[in-house]
Amino acid sequence: MTDDPCFLSAGELRARIGRRELSPVEATQAVLDRIARLQPALNCFITICAEAALAESRRAEAALMRGEARGLLHGVPFTAKDLVDTAGVRTTYGSLLFRDHVPSEDAVAVARLRRAGAILVGKTTTPEFGTKGLTDAPLFGRTRNAWSDRHSCGGSSGGAAVAVATGLAPLAVATDGGGSTRIPAACNGVAGLKQSNGVVPHSQAPDAFGNYTYVTPMTRTVTDTALMLQAMAGPHDSDPWSIGLPVPDYLAAARAEGDLGDIRVLYCLAPSGRPVAAAVKAAFEAALRRLADLGAVLEEMPGDGFEIEPLWRVINHTTWRSRFAEMVARAGDKMSPSLVRQVESASAVTGTDYQQAMFARAALFRRVQGMFRRADLLVTPTLLRPALPIEQDLFDPIEIDGALVPDLRASWFPWTMPFNLTGHPAISVNCGFSPEGLPVGLQLVGRFRGEPALLHAAALFEAAAGLSGRWPPGL
Fold it and tell me: pTM to 2 decimals?
């Protein structure tokens, strides 16, 4: 068993702090020292909160010594993606236009983690306003993959995934609007959950009723995902989807106990006609065998009807145009060219186009609901190839086993976008590695508001795969 706090799970840190075998100050200092050492190479933080974090850790230690009641995450370090508001801590949204912005209030998810005793150590990188599945921006440059300096960490929660994967904090607040938690989780070999609408209130969503974006947990293990979700979940007046929702015992659900006997799984390698890297295909087939060994009943489903990127783009890019068009007109030369191009691409979308897309969103939800009449889980690869080269541009083709394929979103992560629109919970867990040592992600999708059953299945798979103890080399 390691004595380095940086290599402990949040659950183990919590237990050792509670037994007074490890102090919050020791845990926080260890993480900050490791951040200082690795940040120049990884570039996964925009802001590091060293002084404030150490002050908070000293208060946490004093409370512990006084015997005061402890929160669920007392003394456990965490990071927050720089899209998520943090009171008194610079929050740039990855943009030069907000490089000195300091919010006055925490986002609900952050406030709840802090109330549970978690200690914020820094704000992680995001492309400008989280607008692509790669993590780079004029504000900070590029964030490298945890496993390879030649590859992208994915995005848009790239910094969060890299920080978790390399021991820079066991818990990370991320976001997901089309796969932005699950994509980097797959690229960096960690666990990334996009929960159902309202399970974690999204107090910053500009359209609370039509929302398809989520504030999410990013962790190394499924058990830590459950721990983080336990602290973040619950109703809040800012989010109509959350009102009236109970908070299940996620920690109990995520125990890797029992099996998947009689669990019905519908699986598909790729939407019809989409090429898949051989490494992904091999890891996916091995994952299916593990699920079967756990007792799951597997049935292949057709891949037709899941080419929804054009639908997602109409809804998403009109949202971005509504939010950012004025900024582009005023200061587009200081913004990411990919963001400017996406905002401009929505200029011809009409109100009727948008409403038709919302009708199609409802139809997609009903279709997926219908699939759960005969299944308990849907299973797909998270990505159709491992991490892309670090210099990849959003608008360039991607390479899959030597062939160039257009449309990065539709060709790389077609399986993540559907469940942002339908609201069903989906988690990416590591299921193997490519021959060059890059992680491969498996996506499990559960019933609407079915997080406990999804976490249980993911925890069983994770334990069977035995990959969560593997760390990136050379770090």
Answer: 0.98
Domain range spanning residue 9?
A: 5-465
Catalytic residue among 95, 148, 152, 180: 180
- Distance CA(73)–CA(397), nearest Å, equals 43
Identify the pLDDT of residue 2: 74
Query: What whole-number distance in Å separates Cα of residue 451 and Cα of residue 427?
Result: 10
Rounded CA separation 214/208 (Å): 11
- Lookup: tokens for 143: 């964030």
Active site residue 156: yes
**Rg of the Cα atoms in the chain:** 21
In the chain, the number of structural domains is: 1
What CATH number did the domain enclosing 70 receive? 3.90.1300.10
Contact 454, 427 (CB under 8 A): yes
For this structure, is 411 an active site residue?
no
Determine, yes or no, domain membership for 158. yes
113, part of any domain: yes
Residue 207 lies in a domain: yes
For β-strands 77-81 and 171-176, DSSP reports them as parallel
Strand-pairing partners, residue 427, are 193, 444
Burial (CB < 10 A; 0-12, 13-18, 19+), residue 451, is buried
Look at residue 48 and tell me if it is in a domain.
yes
| pLDDT averages per 10-residue partition of the chain, 475 residues | 88 97 98 98 98 98 93 98 98 98 98 98 98 98 98 98 98 98 99 98 97 98 98 98 98 98 97 97 98 98 94 97 98 98 96 98 98 98 98 98 98 98 98 98 98 98 96 90
Catalytic residue among 23, 57, 81, 434: 81
Tell me whether residue 334 is one of the annotated catalytic residues. Answer: no
Active-site choice (148, 156, 157, 203): 156
**E-assigned strands of 147-275?**
171-176, 191-194, 214-219, 264-267
